[in-house]
Amino acid sequence: MIEVDFCGDNIVMLTPKGNLTAEDFSELSVAIDGYINGTDKIPNLVIHAGQLPNWDDFRAIKEHMRFVRNHHRLVKKVAIIGDTLALKALPLLMDHFVAAKIRRFSEAKIAEALIWAKSSEDHPGNFELLDGFPADVVAVKARGIITSQDYREVLLPFVEKKLKGHARLKLLFVLDEDFDSYSEAAAWDDLRFGFSHIGDFSKIALVTDIGWIRHGAKLFSPLVKADIHIFDVAELDDARSWIKG
User: What are the two backbone dihedrals, phi and then psi, of residue 118, each rounded to the nearest 5 degrees?
Assistant: First the structure.
């Protein structure tokens, strides 16, 4: 079954439970279309998924795809709540196939998911610039979902300003439990940032427990002239000392 909660502010909360049937998606379509016809508004969706759906049979999959096909150009935003690896990768995959903007939020950030779904803008995260470092250190912490806007308006101008006074910089980059993911555009911006400033950093301290980011950093480290050190989140104080040294 799929619990449908019309929670105000033009938000519909969907909570899938158990194996989902074709009838579940048919009833969901009726509920959403009824809301649209009754209010003359297109709601944004918050899906408290927990994990990828368990379809009862192939008919259920077909009805799910039919619901997505009929509504993805109407609904502007879909917030998915869940902590599984598959759900973390889902927004990057679905951005290629649906018009709606899809973002994933962790189970601990249901409030943030609702705030994002209610807002007219798509700005679910930010780079926090950390204080208490020498002038040649760029120290940043990523929060929420990093978008292209965060690179364009925060990180790149900050780095370029620092480079006016220093030939080479040091980078402390923190991705802890406050970080959720990158948007698709931000993932490309991250690559462009790395390659465009590949020679501008002498030391890089990456602080994270996220496996795929640690593996990626190790994979690309031979291409970078900087001295790269990867720290666990619990070693943040050690990372701060190392980058200052």
Answer: -80, -30
Q: Angle CA(14)–CA(17)–CA(18) in degrees, nearest 5?
A: 150
20, 56 Cβ separation under 8 angstroms: yes
Q: Which residues contact 19 (CB under 8 A, 6 or more apart)?
A: 54, 55, 56, 60
The token pair that represents 115 in the structure block: 């705030």
Give DSSP secondary structure letters for 91-147. HHHHTTT-SSEEEEE-GGGHHHHHHHHHSSS---EEEEEPPSS-TTEEEEEEEEEE-
pTM tops 0.90:
no
Q: Comparing C-alpha atoms, which of 83, 144, 86 is closest to residue 115?
A: 144
Nearest to 179 by CA among 195, 191, 190: 190
- DSSP characters over 19-80: EE-HHHHHHHHHHHHHHHHHHS---EEEEEEESS-EESSHHHHHHHHHHHHHHTTT--EEEE
Half-sphere exposure of 200 (CA within 13 A, CB side): 18
Model confidence pLDDT, tens digit, residues 175-224:
998 887 777 667 777 777 776 777 899 999 999 998 888 988 888 888 78
pLDDT digits (tens, 9 = 90+) for 70-98: 988 899 999 999 888 777 666 666 766 77
